[in-house]
Amino acid sequence: MESFDHLDTTFQALADPTRRAILARLSLGEASVSELCEPFDMSQPAISRHLKVLEQAGLISRGRDAQRRLSRIEGGPMAEANAWLEGFRRFWEPSFQRLDGLLEEMKTEKKSAKKR
């Protein structure tokens, strides 16, 4: 069985919508705290607290570029979470395919009924 040691920390960090929005922004590229504050009605210290949670979960890292402290997304924990979820996708995939087939059948029957 695969080990997913950091899943609790990762999912706890991802449970907050502000942190997910920060990650979405960082998926576009590095950003400073002030840049990350822009879309939120939230103080810079509040955003910094969210960044700290994301950093402790390993979802982001922070570095320096001249005077700015930039945050960047780190893929490891997200890849681990995705690998864990992948097992469930494989479990549900056959059911979704059967549902797609049934819906397609129903559509075809409905079209045939309209033509009569």
What does this structure look like?
This protein is α+β, with helices and mostly antiparallel strands and 116 residues long. 66% of the residues lie in helices and 12% in strands. It has helices spanning 7-14, 17-26, 33-37, 44-56, 76-115; strands at residues 31-32, 60-65, 68-73. The protein has a 3-stranded antiparallel beta sheet. The relative contact order is 0.14.
Which class of secondary structure composition applies to the elements? Answer: alpha+beta
Instruction: List segments where confidence is low: pLDDT < 50 over at least 5 consecutive residues.
Output: none
Q: Oligomerization state of this entry?
A: single chain
Q: Give helix and strand order, one letter per element, not per position.
A: HHEHHEEH
Q: What's the mean pLDDT score? A: 92
Report on the biggest sheet. Answer: 3 strands, antiparallel
What would a concise description of this structure say?
It contains five helices and three strands; from the N terminus they run H-H-E-H-H-E-E-H. The protein has helices spanning 7-14, 17-26, 33-37, 44-56, 76-115; strands at 31-32, 60-65, 68-73.
Secondary structure layout:
Layout: H1 7-14, H2 17-26, E1 31-32, H3 33-37, H4 44-56, E2 60-65, E3 68-73, H5 76-115
Structural features:
116 residues, alpha+beta, three-stranded antiparallel sheet, 12% strand, elongated
